[in-house]
Amino acid sequence: MSEDKELLKDGKRIDGRAKDELRDMEAEAGILKRADGSGYFRMGGTEVIASVFGPRELHPKHKQKPQRGIIQCRYNLAPFSVDDRKRPGPSRRGKEIGKVAEGALSSIVFLEEFPTATIDVYMEVISADAGTRCVALNAGAIALADAGIPMKGLISSCAAGKIEDTPVLDLKGEEDKDGQVDLPIAMNIETGEITLLQMDGMTDIDEMDEMLDLAIDGCKKVAEKQREALMETFGDKK
Amino acid sequence: MGKKLVEDKSNVLPGDVIAEGDMLSGRGTYKENGKVKSKVLGVARTKKNRMRVIPLSGGYIPQEGDNVIGKISGIGPSHWWVELDSPYDGYLSLAEGSDEFIDLDETELSDVYDIGDMIYTEVIKVTSEKDVKLSMQDRICKKLTGGRIIRISPSKVPRLIGKGGSMVEMIKDRTDSRIIIGQNGIVWVNGGDEDLAVEAVKTVDERGHERGLTDKVEKILDKR
Amino acid sequence: MMEITEIEEEAALDNIKSGERIDDRDLKEFRDIEVVTGVAKKAEGSAKVVLGDTKVIVGVKFGLGEPFPDTPDEGMLMVNAELGPMASPDFESGPPGKDATELARVIDRGLRECEAIPLEELCIEEGEKVWKVMVDIHVLDHDGNLMDASALGAIKALKEAEMPGYEDGEVLRDEGEDFEVLKTPIACTIGKVDDKYIVDPGLVEEEVVDGMVTVTWTEEELCSLQKRGNGGFQKEELLEIFELAKEKSSELRKFI
Description:
The complex is a heterotrimer.
Chain A: E1 8-9, E2 12-13, E3 25-29, E4 37-43, E5 46-57, E6 70-77, H1 92-106, E7 117-127, H2 132-146, E8 156-163, E9 166-169, H3 173-178, E10 181-188, E11 193-197, E12 200-201, H4 205-232
Parallel strand pairs in A: 6-7
Antiparallel strand pairs in A: 1-2, 3-4, 4-5, 5-7, 8-9, 8-10, 10-11, 10-12
Helix pairs in contact in A: 2-4
Chain B: E1 2-4, E2 10-12, E3 17-21, E4 24-25, E5 29-32, E6 35-38, E7 42-45, E8 50-55, E9 67-75, E10 79-83, E11 90-93, H1 94-97, H2 109-112, E12 118-126, E13 132-135, E14 142-144, E15 148-151, H3 157-161, H4 166-175, E16 178-181, E17 186-190, H5 194-207, H6 213-221
Helix pairs in contact in B: 4-6, 5-6
Chain C: H1 6-17, E1 33-37, E2 45-51, E3 54-65, E4 76-82, H2 98-113, E5 123-125, E6 129-141, H3 146-160, E7 162-167, E8 170-178, E9 186-193, E10 196-199, H4 203-208, E11 211-217, E12 222-228, H5 235-253
Parallel strand pairs in C: 4-6
Antiparallel strand pairs in C: 1-2, 2-3, 3-6, 5-6, 7-8, 9-10, 9-11, 11-12
């Protein structure tokens, strides 16, 4: 049981952030050679490397769709990414995240251009300090663009939440543990379309409205970071 | 009335609006709500009336008329399967396999093309389900032996060829190597200063989107 | 994805035979190497190794466990490797296959045989509670010679690691103590083509060599060997390879 820690004091959070402030971010594209596309994203202490292979042949054959391709996402926590070493191998949580990630990305990719094929997105968490699925999607979106996959736009993701009855943006580890609501979303900021939505906790519609606004605002800032990273790939290599 | 919103040769991300109104949506773009947007990470070409985006990278999707370099990956009773470094394999029938008649009583299919053989071939048909039919009938098609294989991004193939073939001719000229370029990003180099030719090809792949590419490649070729 | 073609294999082989490899390296030359520590913030020790285009991250975690019954006063060392699909179209997801298992076990032996980690120092309560040192190798990008890159990452991560504190059955990760590593074992993989030896085989080279040997040296002791893949070696060849590996591993040791 954690001590009675004050998560919010005079409007400032334990790491000094304001309610609507994201953790600091870092992003990079094209960091791996073998993958068709790759991306790195960091939000605070959560870091994820994503790699994309595809479009490529889909096995087993019965999974193939005659009219369109599919996206397959695999989310994995590296054993050393958490406090207590995690045994390697898929966890139920990981499988669920893979599935909602597929849901987040499928509508944005022009899958009709690759009938029967698959686009595989691998998201590896190197360091986990809350918001891992959001950071994973941010890295994944960069990797998809880096791979030249045709998409309607980028997907950007972040989580809002509620701590000590106050809606806040981008929970870090301790806030997530003792928080009241966790609300990760992913969206295309150009169209406003939200393609990932999950919520844990207890809230009402007004609060949801406020938290969604926070999250949408956060996603816009994430999108800027993704853009910077992808624009770098045009630069002259040294 | 249409309006172009980005300059020619601007770098764009998927979703970036390139033009609005009455503008044609070409390769690498799509139209939504009266706006032409980019589909890919790439360079926008807006000079002409059809908006296009040249992708920085991306896999190969076979198109009719393409000449590609493939690898024989399977042999059937009267056909070969050919890997094209694409999600879609090519199908080479006995009839299309050669411009000479092949008598199955006399010859095995593996005697003509065996598993692992590399061929320079033509895509003659692609169905909507992406069944890809190949042919070796054209006289430029042939089996490739020896030399070196380089894999480049298919999106860099036009740069490697150059305007009117200028880039590849320059490399061939300066290295005395034979060079065959597959639209699918597989390149074959043979003879002459192979190492130098390989280096030049790799440079186009790695730096094909940068400005002054011709100078950079020339610098590499000057080494000879 | 098109697998490596015969033409690529022949080119790699011909180049080695002529004394210069396809990436312009000398037979005994390593690719460019970069070693960075502290890359996995939740790990007690971590290192990223870049060897040419091969990239691996190794993380070290400490945990509590019960000692093995036959060594009640010793801590435990565990080495695990993940060769996941993110790193290469040739890797599948799932439990460690033969390659991942061999990789982990060879690196484990390299550390264990030379007693780089004093396991008796890791005992908390004899027969009841000891420290487990868990080394996890995570391959990000496979362009050949995962073995040497991972082994380098493992010893670097261990050397950088800080041991957590312990109080009343709890691990205190905010408290770090220097973790003593007594030796610096370095693995060096050598491939053979006819009478030529190559150091740090690349992706295609690994497929065409007549055989490979991974040799692990500390400064003075040869502490582990693994002949890998197919092919065979004469005794004289092996002795030459051991010498070469000793020389080459000292180059790698500079990164630690």
